[in-house]
Amino acid sequence: MIDLKFNQVSKKYNIRANGDSPKRWYGRGFPGRKKPGQMWALRNVSFQVNEGEALGIVGHNGAGKTTILKILSGITTPTAGEITIRGRLVALVEVSSGFHPELTGIENVYLHGAMLGMRRSEIRQKLDSIIEFSGVGRYIEVPVKRYSSGMFVRLGFAIAAHLDPDILLLDEVLAVGDAAFQAKCLERIAELRKDGRTMVFISHDLAAVYRLCDRALLLSHGSILSDGPPRRVIDEYQQMTFADQGMSADEESDSAIPARCTSISFSAPESPEGIRTGYPLVARLAYKASKNIPDAVFRVSIYWPSGYLCAQLTTESLSGGLQLEPGTGIIEFQCPTLPVVPGLYRVDLAIESKGLEIDVRQRCATLRVEPGKIAYGDFLIENTWKITETLPQPRL
Amino acid sequence: MSTTPETVAASEITACSAGAMAHPTTWETSIGLARTPDRPVKVIHPPAFSIGTIAIGLRTLVQYSDLLYTLSLFRLSVRYKQSALGWTWAALQPLALMGIYTIIFTRVTTVRTGGVPYPVFVFSALLPWIFFSSTISSAVNGLVLHPNLLTKMYFPREIIPLSYMVASLADFCIASTILGGLMVYYKVPLTWHLLYAIPIVVILAGFAAAIALFFSAAQVRFRDVGLAMPFLLQVWMFTVPVVYSLQSVPQRFRSLYLLDPVAGLIEGFRLVVIHGAAPDFRAMALSGAVTMVSLPLAYAFFKSSESTMADLI
């Protein structure tokens, strides 16, 4: 069953050069008057979400994610196209914007709950549970203008969490609040997911999208670029962000640097398919030294698309560094099995001497790892397994 | 559930649809889901000005009726929360105006009041007028004062201007008690014709809602509306029989004058409450007709502009 369907939806905004003033009647007919500019926030966007599925939407700022959110919540309408929503859709976004500062916490629970579509009787039933979930305690009787920002969000989320949605719409609401609150949010969301509710999650937090979603969409400039498993879409998104930079061989620029990396290459020996998970890898780092470099250490750092350090190939050892003579050379790293899962990794290079960095090249190359041995998660742990301790079934 | 074999099938069906929502759905249902299989389907289209928008709008409004009640309640409580005099302000405004107008129109010039003391005469007309004008003046700016609500949450937007109307209605009721006190003081008799005041106020509320909806929607796009409104209301006050009576209007202008529902309704209110006479039914019918035409039109206009409000605010 399809719960949510976008069919060729487009949204146009008129941008006026001079603020929000409407067309002045006395200005018409003057030659050379500029027509207001137009901006297409969404162009022919089509996708669908099945019942019980969790869809993540990622993209740059201005890609159209918030516009989709607003159209789904009913805050604005599309310029063209059709959206079909099956069931009750609740947007868990901007949870504290319905609050009136002069009213107390309880009064705001009634007001905000009514704005979200709950009946008064429903709110009265759930009031105790809401107050307890929010953890606001006795401050519930105090006007909310005295609340801290964390309390605002907790109370707002507590109200929204007690709705009974068929489709849940989430955005960066999870980003606010302390770790305990985030844990509570995620727990509630997990409960709803286990119950079979559909979810649409719009976020910049790629780790959260990867963790919570079954499918992801990549939006850019109002169009869908990619639709598929979260990991693949996230990798594509990050590839867009961190454009490939080649090694710049500007040997003449800085002669003050005593040694520099000149190139890096990765290869899989005796493997025509390329570099694969679980198979040997050879990395060759070429350098050029103009002076004697004492106690040198080479580092080839491999980064996840998210920017965290995955692993590092290094010549660092407890017995001291290398002594480099002026000239060129190649450091060759041999890995019997490459344990990282398939994906696209960024590579940094560095040369150190006596603990100080001499040459650092950030994001200077990429390493593409193809699927090889079966691996889930982030790493392949080499292992062998066998069945032991089988006891024959007692015959009756 | 009945257990006799003949009725088992029927009760199974009723049990299945007991969990379904009120509206029938055109999607095929898949039996075997743990949750309600029949769910209402909503289709969002680009906005259009049509009868359909009114029907859908009213249905959503009914779903959110609790919000209207809650918002009006809180608007009233917030208004008087931090003020020392509290709700007595609702009575002080008409009393003060009554004082000023009495001085002007009895000492400075004279007005035919049909035998009733001027203070009661003007106070009784001030009540419906203040209800109407405060509804309009507060509702017109109501939407633009809540930009964060319009851009971040969804609920039927007409609830905002309508909540101002309900708050003004509550003020009207408070001030009516003062009117009762004044009538006792000036020994003005009460008659059963007083009950006509109820339909009169209902029609007046309908017309006030129409004007409020229209102008609050227009204000979002053209801020001129909010700037012009105080002036417009001041002029309007003198085109309705508040400080003078309908008898002062020359006969040949009277039918034109009564095209404004507010004029007819205020005069009718004063007639039934102070003079103890039946209202002019022709004027009432005219006011009712104008209201019944303008209210759906204003509502349709509001609903079709609602969709772009978030983009313009």
As a percent range, the share of helical residues of chain B equals: 55-70%
Q: Structural class of the secondary elements of chain A?
A: alpha+beta
- Average pLDDT metric of chain B: 79
Q: How many DSSP H or I helices of chain B?
A: 12
Structural domain count of chain B: 2
Main beta-sheet annotation of chain A: 6 strands, mixed
Label the overall shape of chain B: globular
Query: What is the domain total for the residues of chain A?
Result: 2
Mean model confidence by pLDDT of chain A: 82
Rg value of chain A: 28 Å
The CATH C-level name of the largest domain in chain A is: Alpha Beta
Largest interface: A-B, 44 and 41 residues
Explain this structure to me?
The complex is a heterodimer of chains A (396) and B (313). With 396 residues, chain A is α+β, with helices and mostly antiparallel strands. Chain A has helices at 65-73, 105-115, 120-134, 149-161, 179-194, 206-212, 230-241, and strands at residues 2-15, 37-50, 54-59, 80-86, 89-92, 167-170, 198-202, 215-220, 223-228, 259-267, 281-289, 293-303, 309-314, 322-324, 327-335, 343-353, 356-369. In chain A, the strands form 4 sheets. Chain A has a 6-stranded mixed sheet with strand order 5-6-7-3-8-9, with helices on both faces. The two termini of chain A are 49 Å apart. With 313 residues, chain B is mainly alpha-helical. Chain B folds into 2 domains: 1-43, no CATH class; 50-312, no CATH class. Helices cover 68% and strands 1% of the residues of chain B. In chain B, helix 4 packs across helix 7. Classes of the chains: A alpha+beta (396), B mainly alpha (313). Chains A and B meet through helix 1, strand 4 and helix 2 of A and strand 1, helix 3, helix 6 and helix 12 of B.
Structural topology:
The complex is a heterodimer of chains A (396) and B (313).
Chain A: E1 2-15, E2 37-50, E3 54-59, H1 65-73, E4 80-86, E5 89-92, H2 105-115, H3 120-134, H4 149-161, E6 167-170, H5 179-194, E7 198-202, H6 206-212, E8 215-220, E9 223-228, H7 230-241, E10 259-267, E11 281-289, E12 293-303, E13 309-314, E14 322-324, E15 327-335, E16 343-353, E17 356-369
Parallel strand pairs in A: 3-7, 3-8, 5-6, 6-7
Antiparallel strand pairs in A: 1-2, 1-4, 8-9, 10-11, 11-15, 12-13, 12-14, 12-16, 16-17
Helix pairs in contact in A: 2-3, 2-4, 3-4
Chain B: H1 5-18, E1 41-44, H2 51-63, H3 65-81, H4 89-108, H5 118-142, H6 147-152, H7 159-185, H8 197-221, H9 224-238, H10 254-257, H11 261-275, H12 281-312
Helix pairs in contact in B: 2-12, 3-7, 4-5, 4-7, 5-7, 5-8, 5-9, 5-11, 7-8, 8-11, 8-12, 11-12
